UniProtKB/TrEMBL annotation:
PANTHER family linked: OS04G0476000 PROTEIN, OSJNBA0022H21.17 PROTEIN
Bilayer-crossing regions: none
Skewed-composition ranges (Pro residues): 8-19, 43-56
A Pfam family per the record: Sel1
Organism, as annotated: Urochloa decumbens
Protein name: F-box protein
Length: 356
């Protein structure tokens, strides 16, 4: 070999194409498995049998009379729900379930479409309406004998409308003694309308009914507190109960609380709230509120809308509104008068859902 063809140092051989790099030998300590500690782990406590519940926690252990008494003033849905608690309750509440069904059927007979058709026929001289009323009253009486407080209230109401007030008071007293809020309120009203009135007895029943949320009892309690009837006069307390009754949907209380805010009687004077409550009472059909809103509208220059309000107040028996209505009638054109009276014909009171 000649010196020209010899290279130094000798070239390294080229790697073959697509060759992989050699893997390094793994370290003996790299993938060493971690040995678990042999320390003792706390074991969960063994399951033990739970002690039986005390006798007082068993619903079926309650006396049937106590279950019946606790739910006698409840609505039908509450009685049905309680009947599913256990077999003992289901058996104890069977009379109340029957009474609730009978009471509901009596209400359908009294207020249903058949009763409406019978009332229309009675205006033409028929006696079907009276027969339906007596049928409904019989159902209410049967449900009352089974212990339904709501049926006692409805039976008392029908007896009161027919002039049998002593019988009505007995039904109201039965419902009131069972804790029915409407029964307590109606019993208080019957004491107020007795001859002579028994205002102290009325107050005694108005308080628990009003505390239970009955808007009519709250209004009557406020009225007694304002006038000092059966209780010491207290305008501040009267305004408090008027406000609660108004918030519960009682239209008369809405008008009275508007006066309280307007004149600052029992509450801080607030013309904005006074106007709001007066307008709401008028929208619900209160005749004095309609009259006063009509006067305010006339003073502000809106005679057409004022005539509508005064016409509505006159139709509801507000005698003071008739003279003012006639004065505005003479000052408006025939077209505006026709428009105002047409609005009065189409007007409907605002629908509320008062608390019972």
């Amino acid at each position: 070999m000649d010196a020209a063809s010899q290279t130094w140092p000798p070239p390294a051989p080229s790697p073959p194409p697509f060759s992989s790099r050699p893997r390094a030998s793994p370290s003996p300590h790299r993938h060493r498995r971690r040995r678990h500690s042999k320390k003792h782990r706390p074991q969960p406590p063994p399951l033990t049998a739970q002690p039986p519940p005390p006798p007082g926690a068993d619903f079926s252990a309650l006396p049937p009379e106590l279950v019946h008494r606790a739910l006698v003033a409840s609505c039908a849905s509450d009685v049905a729900a309680a009947s599913r608690a256990c077999r003992a309750w289901r058996d104890a509440l069977r009379p109340l379930r029957e009474a609730a069904a009978m009471h509901a059927y009596g209400r359908r007979v009294k207020h249903g479409p058949v009763a409406g058709a019978a009332a229309a026929a009675s205006r033409g001289g028929g006696g079907r309406h009276e027969a339906e009323r007596q049928r409904a009253l019989g159902l209410f009486r049967r449900a009352a004998r089974l212990g339904s407080a709501a049926a006692m209230v409805n039976a008392g109401l029908m007896c009161w409308e027919e002039g049998r007030r002593e019988e009505a008071v007995e039904y109201y007293r039965g419902a009131a003694e069972l804790g029915h809020a409407v029964g307590m309120c109606n019993l208080g009203v019957s004491y107020l309308e007795a001859d002579p009135p028994k205002a102290e007895e009325a107050i005694r029943w108005f308080y628990p009914s009003a505390s239970a949320g009955n808007a009519r009892a709250q209004y009557n309690l406020g009225l007694c507190l304002q006038n000092g009837k059966g209780i010491k006069r207290n305008q501040k307390e009267a305004a408090k109960w008027y406000l609660r009754a108004a918030e519960g949907g009682n239209v008369r209380a809405m008008y009275n609380i508007s006066l309280c805010y307007s004149y600052g009687e029992g509450l801080a004077q607030d013309p904005v709230r006074a106007k709001r409550w007066l307008q709401l009472a008028a929208d619900c059909g209160h005749k004095k509120a309609l009259y006063e809103c009509g006067i305010k509208l006339c003073a502000s220059g809106d005679k057409v809308k004022s005539l509508t309000y005064l016409e509505l107040a006159t139709r509801r028996g507000e005698t003071a509104a008739a003279h003012m209505r006639d004065v505005i009638l003479e000052s408006l054109s025939a077209a505006n008068v026709q428009r105002a009276l047409s609005d009065a014909d189409k007007w409907k009171p605002r629908a509320l859902h008062p608390r019972r």
